Amino acid sequence: MMIVALDPPDFRTVGDFRKRHLKALADLFVQVLKLAEKAGLVKLGHVALDGTKIKANASKHKAMSYERMKKREAELQAEVDRWLAAAEAADAEEDKAFGKDKRGDEMPGWVADKEKRLAKIREAKAALEAEAKAAAEAQAKARQEAEEKRKAEGRKQPGKKPKPPSGEPDAKAQRNFTDPDSRVLLTKDGYIQGYNAQAAVDGTAQIIVAQELTPNMSDQGQLVPVVDGIEKNLGRKPKQASADAGYCSEANLQALADRGIGAYVATGRAKHPDDAKRGTGGPLTQAMRRKLKHAGYRSCYRLRKQIVEPVFGQIKQARGFRQFLLRGIEKVRAEWAMICTAHNLTKLARAA
Question: Residue 51, SS3?
Fold first, then answer.
């Protein structure tokens, strides 16, 4: 705007610029973050983690389940085969009546449309099958390693031997035709077709110090990547980290302990973070429950809500960002990085 004397560029110009320089714009996140650190807005004393579900540039009504794909594939194939046979019979009759040198056997456009639809369904079906096969292989490998460890330690298999994992997708597994990387996610307002955007926010000035994006509903697998992202971006670890019960697991608590980070992770979704109604959990979970309960209202966990949740409110409510514009997980990750960069720039400008 300054270079062109306040003459606003056309939205297509802005869109083309973003398309050409998407990776470079995403990389600006770390540069702006380091500027905020130099300005004294990042201390890494206490960092709060959370995730928010944001709509994808796709409708949940454009998705189809694996069971429906198999049924629809058979229906379309039968319909295409029936019309192709009818066209072949009609061609034979015309050749008999008018001779073989006469044309008119071009297929109507709607047949091609059905064939394209059939190809899309087969592509989505194959992708779901590949994902299910990979998940089954990973599960089988994990079970094998656990079994070998038990044998080495002289322990027996507890309970009945589990069934081998199935390599076939669940009947309700879905894939979207507009943005195949997005998933149907449950939010407090119902189901959306979207992504799970993650952020780690520093307690000093609500600067986002690390960000990630995943299509998965669960937050549990995002704690370690986000925490490691803080050290990758700034070269040091936070002293304390807090997160809600969605991140609680023995593996995550152990990971924070291994990194020397003071953990404050809720052990159950209840009125109080130290309450748990879903069993006692492992030794680290029990220790965390005692830690939160002993501290009471003085627990550092109380900082989590006032640090990270206002950031999502500022992004979604104040700035109106409630849906991604790009499609495909790589492009959407870059778009989320740009949104986080804009948030940090706003904080930096106000602090100047």
Answer: strand
Task: Please tell me whether residue 113 adopts helix, strand or coil conformation.
Answer: helix
Residues 91 and 266: their CA atoms lie apart, in Å, by: 71
Q: Positive or negative CA dihedral for 3, 9, 11, 12?
A: negative
| Better-scored residue on pLDDT, 2 or 166 | 2
Instruction: Single out the residue of 290, 299, 343, 269 nearest to residue 46, CA to CA.
Output: 299
Enclosing H/E stretch for 210: strand 208-214
Confidence class for position 292, pLDDT limits 50, 70, 90: confident
Maximum CA pair distance of the chain?
94
CA 53 to chain centre: 9
Residue with tokens 């879903």: 278
Pick the CATH number of 11-59+180-351 from 3.90.950.20, 3.20.20.370, 3.40.718.10, 3.30.420.10: 3.30.420.10
Could you tell me which of 182, 208, 201, 204 has the C-alpha nearest to residue 28? Answer: 208
Give yes or no for a contact between 56 and 182, defined as CB atoms under 8 angstroms apart.
yes
Is there a contact between 44 and 227 (Cβ–Cβ < 8 Å)?
no
Spatial CB neighbours of 181, under 8 Å, sequence gap ≥ 6: 215, 327, 328, 329, 332
The SS3 of residue 139 is: helix
Q: What is the pLDDT of residues 149-183, one digit of tens each?
A: 777 777 776 666 767 767 677 777 778 888 989 98
To the nearest whole percent, how much of the chain has pLDDT over 90?
Answer: 45
| Residue 4, amino acid | V
Within 10 Å of residue 75's Cβ, how many Cβ atoms?
13
Rounded Cα distance between 56 and 332, Å, is: 8
* 79 C-beta neighbours (distance < 10 Å), count: 13
